[in-house]
Amino acid sequence: MNILILGGTQFSGRAFVQQAVNANHSVTLLHRSKADPGLPTAVRRLVGDRDPKVGDGLDRIKELLDAGEHFDAVVDMCGYTPRVTKAACDLLKGHTDLYIYISTISVYDQPDQADADAILTEDSPKVILDDPTVEKVTGETYGGLKVLCEQVVTNAFPNSHCIPRPCVIAGPNDPTDRITWWARMLTTQDTLVIPKPPAGIVSFIDSRDLAAFFLHCVTNKATGVFNATGPETNLTLHDFIHRTHAALESKTKLIEANHDWLNAQAIQPWQDIPTWLPPEKQYMSRISSAKARSVGLTNRPLEDTMIAIQQWDTERGSPDLKAGMKPDRIAEIVSKL
To answer: What is the pTM for the complete model shown?
Structure first.
């Protein structure tokens, strides 16, 4: 198959490119960096910014289309604003059999307190931006902008769109370090303070499983909207930590602290302890991927993901992490117990 990828040099996109090449598909990438991103040599690279106000990346694609090229599938990994997404859709209408737009579970609106424990599906209420013309991507606008981008894609490709909505993504080459923080701390720290149960549930998907789902959708021409979550339903934070501890053969001593004590130390869920969500955000881990599983999504055991993350983190030289408490802060917290 002939596949065009917008983006694709980072994380799940990088995994998808490798899997597509391994499956003998023809892959063309449009990406911004002129540096070699470490892609397989079989990949055809088009360099340029896809935003028409910034660069001429779409012109590189137009040259191929004008020469008669047709793509079996387009995989849009980096559409963050409706204007930029629409420019690509307008160009590629009539030139592809399937448009896959990678969205996010951040499109879902926070449920009312009465529905706080509800399981969210693809039809659950979405975020609505106060200002739909905003283009600055922040924590406050990200989900709403993705909602608008989805609408652009479905309007352009009403019968040939596929929209996966991933949760937190984990695995080798993770640029966020959220799940990587656990692999690092559980193999380097003598003692680690963790929230005492109940501390909610955890949801993340291995980037390689997500990439495999993208490829499955491409090869099977799957259409519709699909939540892509994992690694299993109702995985508690407590079980995730202890199973990772065992999988990594960790010697780290785990000390459970109640939530009031952690709060008194100014330890914040998510920012200081990644994957630990506060009660009002727990809905983000209660999103069903049953629909995606029915068409081919599979998840590897969390232990396999965490072992791969730890090995990759060691191989890259264990640089400073972008997420979670630093070791000196952990030591300070431990000293207060």
So the answer is: 0.97
